[in-house]
Amino acid sequence: MSDRIPVTAFIQDRANENTLNETDQFFSPQIAEAFTNREYEIDEVFVREEKAIARIIITAVHDGVFAGNAPTKKSVQITQYREFQVVDGKIIKHKGWFDTGTLLPQIQG
C-alpha cells in the first residue's frame, strides 16, 4: 500500500533519528542518552486506511545508566513501535513507544 512508502522513508532518513527517539514515555530521553551507536531496522509495517504501525528494531550499545542499571557495554535490541497517520501520501501525525519489557532483561545482571 502507498502509505508504507512515506513511513518507510521517514524511518530510514537519518535526519529523523532524534524524532524516532522521542516518545511520550517519561524515560524516552534516558534511552537516547544510555544507548549509543543506534541503528534502526524496520521489522514490519502494517497499514490500514490512513493509519500505519511500524515495528522498528533498534540495535544499540548500552553505554549509560538506564532504569538504575549501570552501563554493560553490551549490544542490545530495543523494540519500538510507531503509529503514523498518513493523508495524501504525507505523514501528518506520529507517536511512538518503546518495549522496555524486552529491553530490561538484556541489561540486568
Structure in words:
It is a single chain. The protein has 109 residues and is of the alpha+beta class. Helix content is 27%, strand content 45%. A 4-stranded antiparallel sheet has the order 1-2-3-4, sandwiched between helices. It is elongated, with a radius of gyration of 14 Å. The protein starts with a helix and ends with a helix. The mean pLDDT is 92.
Q: Could you state the oligomeric state of the chains shown?
A: single chain
Structural class of the secondary elements?
alpha+beta
Radius of gyration: 14 Å
Spatial shape = elongated
Number of strands: 4
Number of helices: 4
The proportion of strand residues reads 35-45%
Biggest sheet character:
4 strands, antiparallel
**Low-confidence runs of at least 5 consecutive residues:** none
Percentage of helical residues?
Answer: 25-40%
Mean pLDDT: 92
Please list the strands of the largest sheet in the order they lie side by side. 1-2-3-4
Distance between the termini: 43 Å
Which series of helices and strands comes N to C?
A: HHHEEEEH
Brief description of this entry?
27% of the residues lie in helices and 45% in strands. The chain is of the alpha+beta class and 109 residues long.
